[in-house]
Design brief:
alpha+beta, Jelly Rolls, 2 domains, 4-stranded antiparallel beta sheet, 12 helices, 20 strands, binds CU-O-CU linkage
Length: about 550
């Protein structure tokens, strides 16, 4: 039985922490201290203490006897995890955690070739007590009941996510670099495979190969709250007590949520969310690099790459922090931090919807997958439904019908241009503000505005301008977020559905102690056009911190390369 100690926490509400004050303001300064225990919940089996030798013999020990590690040429170009040693991962509270998989035998390549296609349905359409609900809960309960030494055990499955993202593995060929499946082009394919095998295990445990996981349809109004199946009662295997009690249904999710944000009127929040979806999926997702994140190859140090794609940052990260609860920003649990996120069954519905965004970007928005062989050939190891380790490649997950699933055809209201952000105040005279060189490098511990010069067009290259927030430095274990505005002279009056709100930069707490130095880019040509500022030779950029401070080294504008 899992046993967690009592947790006490409060979530501070401060209007000054949320300068773009929403139209309706909930007046309490903070919610009361809430106490609850998470003891012995729904029969979940904790992996407990596995024999350390078994752990070290896990995937890695066996893996090292396979041809791949015997063949140095296998260290070619894709970024690959090295399974020789699975090491302790790090929790945001800085203690180490062993997420390593239990010992297993044999690794085979796996290429899916489904002959039937099942439909993943929206979680909000599932009724508590329905046949589907019963199957789903039965599958998750059985997973929780499996022996801790079984890699299909629910907690072991959550540990797979932890090991892959919190520093459990090093980068093959570069033992000093920790491998990572977030903040790069590996994000979408890795999570697709992860959810796929989780679904396969569910099918196996209930002996129904037509079973699918639901998706949390947070991009459409009907799905913009925790689906009721995850909150029906505390003994349900779909329930997780480590969720923010202020965000239980019918609270509408905030897809740009930052700690401390106040609740706005649900109707208005829905408008904000649709505008945010439009911005992230359409305005800011023009290329595979925008959408999937940047290339991550053999020898690359993930802590210095440009990083995550549009959707991974927003809404993916914020759905995590909004759902998970926290003692404070520095010690988030379950959905709020990557090491523990998959301990909440809602994780898999969240990621099914993230995965659905990939299909929508390709099918409805003219997006395309990378053709780069280092992306296509990158591989991961997962446990399949038989508890056997399998090696799968990115190129083999691109056609989801071969994986045997598709998504229910539900309305996608943000595809409609009517939800697109609108300018708050067109073509204003920009206030004076310093030049970036006078301000940076600096610590973002208060709002900062700078006037940034636009580059002059010469030659025939792209004329799309990219705003680059350069050299954002932080410790990966920290929750990080700041919001970015353009040509906004009154941030307090600005709303998330105003064109002036460009978006945010964020980091979900994870990983070994590592300082990251990365960049955040926004496409601004279309935005400036809509703001009536096409001919301005400068822009006003404002950064609003929403977390503990990060260091920022500069801001500039360049043409897309
Ligand atoms: Cu691997 Cu939503 O995170």
């Amino acid at each position: 039985m899992a046993s967690f100690s009592a947790v006490a926490y409060y979530i501070p509400y401060s209007s000054s922490f949320f300068p773009n004050k929403p139209p309706k303001f909930n007046n309490r300064r903070r919610n009361p201290v809430v106490k609850f225990t998470c003891e012995a919940k729904n029969g979940e089996q904790s992996p407990g203490k596995l024999d350390r030798r078994d752990v070290l013999l896990g995937l890695g020990g066996l893996y090292s006897t396979t041809s791949l590690s015997a063949n140095p040429m296998a260290l070619a170009d894709p970024a690959l995890p090295d399974f020789k040693d699975c090491i302790d991962a790090t929790q945001p509270n800085k203690t180490l955690i062993n997420c390593c998989p239990p010992a297993v035998s044999g690794i085979n390549d796996y290429v899916p070739s489904a002959t039937t296609v099942n439909t993943r349905i929206s979680a909000q359409s599932v009724e508590v007590g329905s046949d589907y609900y019963n199957k789903y809960t039965e599958a998750i309960q059985k997973m929780k009941n499996l022996s801790p030494s079984d890699p299909r055990n629910f907690r072991q499955q959550a540990n797979v996510h932890c090991a892959y993202c919190d520093g459990g593995y090093t980068l093959k060929g570069s033992p000093k670099l920790l491998y990572e499946i977030h903040n790069s082009w590996l994000f979408f394919p890795w999570h697709r495979w992860y959810v796929y095998f989780f679904e396969k295990i569910c099918q196996k445990l209930i002996d129904d190969d037509t079973f699918t996981l639901p998706f949390w349809n947070w991009d459409a109004p009907q799905g913009m709250q925790i689906p009721s199946i995850y909150n029906s009662n505390v003994i349900s295997p779909l329930y997780d007590c480590f969720r923010n009690p202020d965000h239980l249904p019918p609270t509408v999710i905030n897809l740009e949520w930052s700690y401390g944000d106040v609740q706005v009127d649900p109707k208005i929040q829905i408008e904000y969310n649709l505008a945010i979806m439009y911005t992230q999926m359409i305005t800011q997702s023009k290329t595979p690099n925008d959408f999937f994140g940047k290339a991550y190859r053999a020898g690359d140090d993930i802590t210095t790459l440009d990083g995550a794609g549009t959707i991974e940052q927003t809404p993916h990260n914020h759905v995590h922090t909004w759902t998970g609860t926290a003692v404070d920003q520095s010690n988030p649990i379950d959905m709020g931090a990557l090491y523990s996120a998959a301990r909440d069954p809602i994780f898999f519905a969240h990621h099914a919807n993230v995965d659905r965004m990939w299909t929508i970007w390709l099918n409805n928005l003219g997006g395309s997958n990378f053709t780069d062989k280092d992306w296509l050939n990158a591989y991961f190891i997962f446990y399949n439904e038989e508890a056997k380790p399998v090696r799968v490649r990115v190129k083999d997950c691109l056609d989801i019908t071969k994986l045997g699933y598709q998504y229910e055809d539900v309305p996608i209201p943000w595809l409609d241009g009517s939800v697109k952000p609108k300018p708050r105040a067109k073509a204003k005279t920009l206030p004076s503000a310093p030049d970036p060189a006078q301000v940076f490098p600096t610590t973002l511990d208060k709002p900062i505005s700078v006037i940034v010069k636009r580059p002059k067009k010469s030659g025939t290259g792209s004329s799309e301008e990219i705003l680059i927030i350069e050299g954002i430095e932080y410790d990966k274990r920290n929750y990080v977020k700041f919001n970015v505005f353009i040509n906004e002279d009154n941030v307090n009056a600005s709303r998330p559905d105003n064109t002036e709100f460009l978006g945010s930069f964020s980091n979900l707490p994870h990983g070994h102690r590592m300082t990251v130095k990365t960049n955040k880019k926004f496409r601004i040509s279309q935005v400036l056009e809509e703001l009536g500022a096409r001919d301005y030779d400068k822009v006003l950029v404002t950064l609003i911190p929403k977390s503990s401070p990060v260091k920022i080294n500069g801001i500039k504008i360049e043409f897309d390369s």
